[in-house]
Amino acid sequence: MLDLWRYTLRDLASQLKNLKLKPTKLIEHTLKKIRELNNKLYMFIYVAEDLAYKQAEELEKELEEGVQRSLIHGLPIAVKDVFYTRDMPTTAGSKILRNFQTSYDAEVVGRLREAGAIIIGKTNMHEFAFGVTNKNPHYGTSRNPWDLERISGGSSGGSAVAVATEISVLGLGTDTAGSIRIPSALCGVVGFKPTYGLLSLEGVVPLSWSLDTVGPITKSVEDTALVLDIMTGGRHGFAENLKEEIDRELRFLVPAKIIEELASSEVEGVFWRTIDKIVSAGHKVDYLEDLDWFKHASNSRYIIVLSESATYHLKWIRDYWSMYDPDVAGRILMGYFIPAPVYIHAQRVRMKTIEKFKKVMKDHDAILLPTVSIEAPRIDEEKVQVKEKEVSVRYALLCMTEVFNSLYAPAISIPCGLSKNNLPIGLQIVTEPGQDKKLLKIASHVERLIKRFPKPPVS
Amino acid sequence: MEFVKKIFRLESIDEQLLRKASENISKFIEDSQLLELEIN
Questions:
Q1: β-pairing, A251-254 with A366-370?
Q2: Which of A70, A142, A155, A406 is catalytic?
C-alpha cells in the first residue's frame, strides 16, 4: 500500500512527471482504499471506478509523451455532490435529485478536468448543503477518521474525509456558513473559503446565492494555493506569493470575549497554546473589544440563508416535502414566513457590518479564532455542554464561522493541535474581503510555526 | 399563516411543520433584535 501522507502535491506531481508513480497505479490504490474505507466512513455517494481508471490510462499516455498539463495531472480529486458533473449524477445529498445528471460540468470542475485531474467520485454531504453535521438520512452519516463514533462535520464532510484519509489531494467543497472550514477543522485538514465570488458558482446547486462560496480542502496551505491557481486560471499567483517568507511583525486581532463565551475549555486551551507560539515568533496579538457587529452579521446571515433557500426550493418543497430530511425541510419552510422587509433589512445590516469590519481591520493583518467551538461531537449528540451552557450541536459548530460568510471575507482553517480525546482542533484565520493572497501567505507562515500534523487513525 | 400557505401554495404540507416553522422564525427575529437596528 502506498503511503501518501508524507507527499505534498508538488512531490506527487514530480513523481508522476517522471512516471515513478503512474496514474493507473495511483488510481488502483485509491479505488482499493475507497472500497476498504467507504463502508466505515460513508464519504462517497458515487464512485467513478471505470471512468476514473480510463481517464488515468489516457493521462498516463500523455505523460509518456512528455505532456504534463499541470501539477494535478493524473491526480484523483473528490468533488462534493453539489457540483454538476457531465458523467456522474449530482444528488446534492438529496433523495429528490437521486437521478439528476447534467450534460456539462460546473465551471470549477471543468477547469480541474482540463488541468488533468481525475474525478474519483462525488462526496457525501448534508442534504442540499443545508446543515453542518453531515448526518444524511439518504446516504449515511459521514464519519470522522479520528473517531468513527463522531461526525465529520459538514456540509462538505465527505470531501474533508477523503483528504484526511489520503484518498484525494483535493476535496472540492462549498461554504455558506462554514461548510468547508468546519469539517476541515474536525478532520484535521486545511479548508479555505475564499472571498465571495473568487471562484465561480456556475453549475453548483445553490443554497443561498449571496452567501455561497466554492473552495478547496487540502493537506497544506501550499497545496491550497496551487489548486487555487489552477481553479482561477493562474491570474492571481497564489502559490508564487508563498515563496517569499514573511519577515515583519504581523498584527493579529483575537475576539477573546467571544472565544471565552462560546468555546469549550478544551478548544480554548489548544487555541491559546497556538497563540503563544505565534507571539513567541515575534508577532503581536490585540484583543477585539467591539463585538456587536459580529452578532449582527451572524443574525443577518441566518435571515438571508433562510429566505434565499426558500426561494430556490419552492419548485420542490410543496410537492416533495416528505422526501426531505425533516430538519432541512423545517429550515426551508421557515424562509416562507420571513417578510420581504425583514430580508431587505438583513441585507442592509450586513452591508453596515462589512463597513464596520473594514474599520476594525484597518491596523491589523488578520483575525485569529478557533474554527469550531467544540471538538467533533458524537453522532448521537444533539446538544453539547459548553462551559455552563447547553447549546445545540449545530450552533456550536457554526458560531465561529458563519459571520465571515456574511462579511464576504476569506477565511481558512488550519489544524493547530489535538484535544485530550485525540481529536483535531482548527485555527481560523480571516482577512478583509479581496485579501485572499495575503491570507494564504499568513496561513502558510502560521502553519510553519505549528508542528506537522499527524494522520488520522483510520486512513 | 393562511396567507403564506395560499401565496406559496403550501397547502399539501403538514400543518404542524408549517406552524413550527412560523413560530421558530418569529422567535428568532424577535430574540435577535435585528429590526431594532437603525440603518441610515
A1: parallel
A2: A155
For residue A1, give the C-alpha cell. 500500500
CA A35 to chain centre: 24
Per-residue model confidence as pLDDT tens digits over A79-133: 999 999 999 999 999 999 999 999 999 999 999 999 999 999 999 999 999 999 9
Measured distance CA(A435)–CA(A406) in Å, rounded: 16
Domains parsed from chain A with CATH numbers? 9-242 (3.90.1300.10), 251-295+341-449 (3.90.1300.10)
CA-based angle A89:A81:A377, to the nearest 5? 145
Distance CA A90, CA A100 (A): 6
Q: How many domains does chain B have?
A: 1
**Could you tell me if A306 lies within 8 Å of chain B, comparing CB atoms?**
yes
CA-derived radius of gyration, chain B: 13
Q: A324 CA to chain B: closest CA distance, Å?
A: 12
DSSP state of A30: H
Q: Using a cut of 0.90, tell me whether the model's pTM lies above it.
A: yes
Q: Determine the Cα–Cα distance for residues B25 and B30; give it in Å rounded to an integer.
A: 8
Other C-beta atoms lying within 10 Å of the C-beta of residue A300: 26
Helices (H), A283-325: 292-320
**Which residues in chain B are closer than 8 Å to A333, comparing Cβ atoms?**
10, 13, 17-18, 21
**Whether A459 is catalytic:** no
Answer for the pair A442, A366: CB distance below 8 angstroms, yes or no: yes
Residue A389 falls in the annotated catalytic set: no
CA distances from A222 to A159, A219, B18 (A): 18, 9, 47
Cell numbers describing residue A446:
502560521
Cell representation of residue A310: 426558500
- Beta-strand (E) ranges in A72-133? 76-80, 118-123
Residue B27: domain span: 2-36
Whole-number Å distance between alpha carbons of A319 and A330: 15
DSSP three-state, residue A276: helix
Angle, CA of A263, A163 and A31, to the nearest 5°: 145
Positive/negative CA dihedral, A149, A153, A158, A163: negative
Tens of pLDDT along A217-271?
A: 999 999 999 999 999 998 999 999 999 999 999 999 999 999 999 999 999 999 9
Give the C-alpha separation, A115 to A196, whole Å.
23
- Is the peptide bond prior to A155 cis by the omega test (within 30 degrees of 0)? yes
Residues of B in contact with A337 (CB under 8 A): 1, 4, 21-22, 25-26
